[in-house]
Amino acid sequence: MAMDAIEFFKGYGRVNETVDKRLRSATRRRLILVVASAAALLLVFLVAVPIAVSKRGRSPSPESVADSIRAMCNVTRYPASCFSSVSAANGANLTTDPEELFGVSLAVAMDALAAASAAASEFAPPSKDRRLAAALRDCRELLGGAIDRINDSIALMRPAAGEATLNASEIEDLRTWLSAAVTNQDTCLEGFEGTTGGFLGKMEAAMANATEYTSNSLAIATGILGAMEKSRFPLHRRRLLYAGGGREWMRRALQEKGKPKPNVTVAADGSGQVRSIKEAVDLAPRRSEEAFVIYIKAGVYKEQVVVGKDQWNVVMFGDGMDKTVVEGNLNFVGGTPTFSTATFIAEGKGFVAMTMGFKNSAGPEKHQAVALRSSSDRSVFFRCGFDSFQGSLYAHSLRQFYRECHIAGTVDIIFGNAAATFQACLIRPKQALLHQENTVTAQGKSDPNQNTGFALQACSIQRLDSDVTVPSYLGRPRKDYSTTVVMQSEIGSVIDPAGWLSWVVGEEPPNTIKYGEYQNNGAGSSVAGRVHWPGYSPAMSEAEANRYTVEALISGGDWIPATGVQFQSNLG
Ligand SMILES: *[C@@H]1O[C@H](CO)[C@@H](O)[C@H](O)[C@H]1NC(C)=O
Ligand SMILES: *[C@@H]1O[C@H](CO)[C@@H](O)[C@H](O)[C@H]1NC(C)=O
Ligand SMILES: *[C@@H]1O[C@H](CO)[C@@H](O)[C@H](O)[C@H]1NC(C)=O
Ligand SMILES: *[C@@H]1O[C@H](CO)[C@@H](O)[C@H](O)[C@H]1NC(C)=O
Ligand SMILES: *[C@@H]1O[C@H](CO)[C@@H](O)[C@H](O)[C@H]1NC(C)=O
Ligand SMILES: *[C@@H]1O[C@H](CO)[C@@H](O)[C@H](O)[C@H]1NC(C)=O
Question: 0.90 exceeded by the pTM?
Answer without folding.
Answer: no
